[in-house]
Design goal:
Helices cover 27% and strands 20% of the residues. It has 5 helices and 7 strands, in the order ββαββαβαβαβα. It has a 7-stranded mixed sheet with strand order 1-3-4-2-5-6-7, with helices on both faces. α3 links the parallel β5 and β6. α1 crosses α5. The structure holds guanosine-5'-diphosphate. Guanosine-5'-diphosphate binds next to α1.
């Protein structure tokens, strides 16, 4: 099978990557924690869902990408952890922070709350794609594949980009191996990059993906753009 057009091969070794002096997203703000689809922001503009196992580094990744320390902590406050948290990143663009999954199975009551939320999110015309945060030391798990399937089942064009997080914990050769393995597993399904919120590896690349996906474009063009480059 064909590999996604812009799977990234850059090694996890560029601490200066992402060192912006000017904020790319100066108008970031928390919008709403949605407990039901009726609380979602109106469905226009462009939004990108961020998802990952609990502790994969999703909150840190969102903060690093939008250059707003502590922003995604909102999603972790009591009562909000199982909800869909929407952030406005300016110019009618949003990030949707999905509940972390994995570890103990969610209680049935929680599943009943968020399953319809996730189902409703998928129907939104403004949803452009899914950024999946996967711990680079663990690789892609069954639950990650479920999310990928969720995104692929959409009728609208949907892109998927995987951040192999915490790559500062890997050596250069381990990073390269983890990247190649994820690329092989995902083939033409998703683009993949190495990422570290700690040393900022890959932050610029992830920002470019977010910007490219949320540009105002004819929806037909979206299929043509595999990622940011
Ligand atoms: P979340 O549960 O997916 O939102 O994960 P968090 O962003 O809260 O991160 C979980 C833990 O991993 C925290 O202790 C973070 O400090 C740590 N962490 C997150 N990103 C990185 C990273 O890039 N490198 C390292 N070494 N640790 C990280």
């Amino acid at each position: 099978m064909r590999r996604a057009a812009n799977c990234t091969l850059s090694p996890c070794s560029n601490p200066s990557d992402g060192a912006h002096t000017v904020s790319l997203f100066p108008h970031v703000r928390f919008l709403v924690s949605a407990a039901q689809p009726s609380q979602f922001p109106s469905d226009h503009g462009a939004e990108v869902a961020f998802a990952g196992r609990s502790n994969a580094g999703k909150s840190s990744a969102i903060n690093a990408i939008v250059q707003r320390h502590g922003l995604a902590r909102v999603s972790r406050t009591p009562g909000r952890t199982r909800l869909l948290n929407f952030f406005d990143i300016g110019a009618e663009r949003r990030i949707v922070d999905l509940p972390g999954y994995g570890y103990a199975a969610a209680p049935e009551a929680e599943r009943r709350t968020w399953a319809p939320l996730i189902a409703a999110l998928r129907e939104r015309a403004s949803l452009r794609g899914l950024v999946l945060i996967v711990d680079s030391r663990r690789g892609i798990a069954a639950e990650d594949e479920n999310l990928i399937a969720w995104a692929r089942e959409r009728s609208l064009p949907t892109r998927i980009h995987v951040l192999l997080s915490k790559c500062d914990k890997l050596t250069r050769s381990e990073s390269t191996k983890a990247l190649r393995q994820a690329q092989t597993e995902l083939e033409d399904v998703a683009t993949v990059q190495l990422f570290s919120s700690l040393d900022k590896t890959g932050v610029e690349e992830a920002q470019r993906v977010l910007e490219a996906w949320t540009q105002r474009k004819n929806p037909d063009d979206l299929v043509e753009i595999a990622g940011a480059d």
